[in-house]
Amino acid sequence: MTRAADVLLSCSGLTRRWGGLVAVSDVSIAVQRGSVHAVIGTNGAGKSTLINMLSGELPPSAGRIELLGLDVTGWPQPRRARAGLGRSYQRNTIYPEFTVLENCRLAAQSRWQRPWAWWQRASACADSNAAAHEAAASVGLAEQLDIVAGALSHGRKRQLEIAMCLATAPDVLLLDEPLAGMGAEETDRMLDLLHHLKRGHGILLVEHDMDAVFRVADRITVMVNGSVLASGTPDEVRHNPQVQDAYLGGH
Amino acid sequence: MSLSSRAGFVVAVFTLLALYPLVSGSFGIDLVTKTMIYAILALSLELLVGSTGLVCFGQAAFFGIGAYGAVLLAGQGDAASALWLLPACVAAAALYALAVGALSLRTRGVYFIMVTLAFAQMAYYVVHDTPLGGGTDGIYLNQAPQLAGLDLGRPLVMYGVTLVLLAAVFVFLALLLRSRFGRALAGIRVNEQRMRATGFSTYPYKLAAFTLSGGIAGLGGFLFAVKDGFVNPELMSWHLSGALLVMIILGGLGHLRGALIGAFAFALLQELFKSEAVWGPLARHWNLGLGLTIIATVALLPRGLVGLPQQWRDALLGRAPRGSAETAP
Asked: pTM of the entire structure?
């Protein structure tokens, strides 16, 4: 297995300036298939700016982003999404007034858009329905398909958001604090899910919950003030004295 | 409401409209024809506001372009054929909508409202202040167009054609909104960020909806010009754009039936408050009564007239109102 072949998403020298403020400075990261790459850091370390540049919501000031070996730096977000980049947000971004199934089906529809076929019912689209059922089942929402998404519990909404990502058949998942606001049981369920998902995907995880990060991550990048302080396996990061000083506080 | 009762309601409305000429005089025919044209406009606006979440305050421009197109393209010669004149008017309005949409859809929220209003006012002043539109006096249609041997100058023929086209627009939009395109518009209305994150380029979707809406409004304009045989700049004034917004809000956003009900409710209220038999000399101030009624309706019926049965049921059973509106037409 060559290293180049299984790197799904990478960036090099990625920088974002807001006027004089450098939010992200010269960050390089590579996400491999079959692994969870966690990015941790204090508030304001530039994690969200980084993930927004990777997903295409924010143009970088400098640097290069590659998705599946293609230079996607100049691509708009929808094009990156269609090329295999799924993302979830810190705040729930579902369609609260649609059912769970329709949330997933609409996400899957992005693969079979056919907007000109105005006489065909969207709900009769066999491809997107099949993908939606599969995605909902894989996160454990198979029993909740007909529930209006806004009525789900917080934890289930986060699961739904991941199902919506999966329905688009992505290679890479960018997950922005998927555990935020979750109880212990919901956290366990989500970590199991991540463990299961990483088999076929590359996952970039931005997360505050340190215990969870060290349980699930294969690689960890620590950011401070927009720069990478350290990067390596959980053990390397845990024993890095700089990291202990700057962030973990003797974790 | 279930699908069958929704369909039943719509079929009942169109059946009543089809039977109406049997009992009506010429005043009623003209009024209902006009109201059906407004219903077409309200449907075109509902596609943007209620279905896509784009509040357009310039719908009158597309209507006016359809109307002026009908008069200007018909020319001074013999009766033109509606078979080419109607598509030409729809295309002209859609083309202007494409240009306006391409620019205004780069803005959002209140800026979008203002930019669409500005483009509509631009069209208004073009017909108002240039020789092209005949100025404030407007222009007369030389001869009503023919449609496959039917003379559209006859009020009953016009009534029938308008009814058929209203039904066609309604059915087309109902199918469209449940298609993949329509579901994508609904997704854009609810959460555009998520749509982009899942791989939908939302701008072309919104532009297509905007263009389509403009074309349908242009169809209304064509019908209006042929019905009256006359166009003037007031057709493009922002008052009409505002009245159309009131119609769909009154009827209930998020439902095609709402646009239909709203257009008729608005027309009935307008006739009621204009009636000297009811109000005597106060009828001159009909705008006041209409305005107060609309404010009261919006305050008391947050889901519009179309939500009234559900609201009564909730009140009877003592339930809290349902938060999310039905999204199906």
From this structure: 0.92
